[in-house]
Amino acid sequence: MSTKQQEHGHIILIPFMAQGHFTRFLALAKFISQRKPNMKITMVSTPLNVKHLQSTLLTSETNNICLAELPFTSTDHGLPPNSENCDSLPPHLINTLFFVFTPGGYGTAMYFSIWSHLPHRKDDDCNDLIEEFHVPKFPDTCRLHLSQFPLHRRDSDLEVATFAKFCQTQISFSQKSDGMVCNSVEEIDVVGLEALRNHMESKPVWPIGPLLPSFLLRQGNQNKNNGPLVPQSRTGKEFGISPESCIEWLNHQKPSSVLFISFGSQNTISAPKMKELALGLEKSGKYFIWALKPPRGFENISEFESEWLPEGFVERMNITKKGFLVKNWAPQLEILCHRSTGAFLSHCGWNSVFESLSQGVPIIGWPLFAEQPYNSKMLQEEMGICVELARGDETELCSEDVKKVIEQVMDSSKGDEMRNKATVIAEKIGAAMREYTDDAGGHQKGSSIRSIDDFLATITSEKEVV
Prior knowledge:
The protein has 466 residues and is an alpha/beta fold. It folds into 3 domains: 89 residues, no CATH class; 128 residues, no CATH class; 192 residues, Rossmann fold (3-Layer(aba) Sandwich). Helices cover 40% and strands 13% of the residues. The protein contains 16 helices and 15 strands. Helix 4 crosses helix 6 and helix 9 packs across helix 14. The chain is globular, with a radius of gyration of 22 Å. The chain starts with a helix and ends in a 7-residue tail after the last helix. Belongs to the UDP-glycosyltransferase family. This is Glycosyltransferase.
């Protein structure tokens, strides 16, 4: 390597093939580019994914970020033609593309703890499944319930053993690395990052989050959007409704009066649960925006059918204007940063969690799979800004439960307390990405700025005091 190359360096990014991961890796690339403008950054993926990503980079001001294609033929791996992204696959085929990836500190540490120290699933005295257990590397008070395991991972000893072997191999590789970059913030993920560092032993863990569009952090909870549309990166996705229409509808609602409902890009619930959720929304009398996707078992159907909702529900929403129904993709970032949005009913995927927290919006949790139950647990037990409505799609749920939780989060004193806590967290998230000169003339950096600078200095062997 030449001296010039050693000075500039070259970082290769290989994101997991899913919409939310591409978005965050692009944010990471741009973050690195801001700190090291002369460093070359290459994001690697398959041809169709690169094509989608290219449109985003064309409008970017960075010229040191490039894309590289890896040959990939989906049919060679038992996938449908042109399937290079989890968003285009039914749930049972997603594992075909799976390799290790991690969310925030808490979720990653939980993943490491559970699969490295797989808990005993049966009581030796009575041969019954043990329903609750302590999580290694976490405080003694941290308990995990069996229902917080993904359903298909806890149905049989064979399934658990097979997946555990895969996970333990990936965790071992992670622990042999020189360090870990984590999309989190030091000040809000204290318990999780401490546990993760215990797993990594002497290896550094760099929390460099939040990897979010700059306008979310610039506006913050004290400067909510109320009209002018802020652009966001779509990475090839088209919304089911124009962002302008959403904003116009939100502009007519009172502050913190709207519930936003979305289960993310790879998640959905069953038709019976969908009907109960709809009835509960209607009983609550709250205004809401709902990003509708075909229910579980109908993922391959492109058009949402009204029959999956209670009879007459769509027509009643059109008349009362209480519910704004969006088929398929909704402009989530624009909705969450609007002053009228008061709560977010979410699957608790880490990207969605961070987007909500950055705007001081409390969460109604409905985790479905992967690390989502752990994120929900952290939001509820460690942060106090979440109430869990359901867990997985097997949970019994009735419309009265939905109504009760919505009212608790949006109307009660507990809801006010959650909003206040979420506002404080939003301020901490914004501060982590801030760089400024203090009153004494000193140069100050937020924790995530310090962390990314330390990471870049470490990998380029130019470590400096930050």
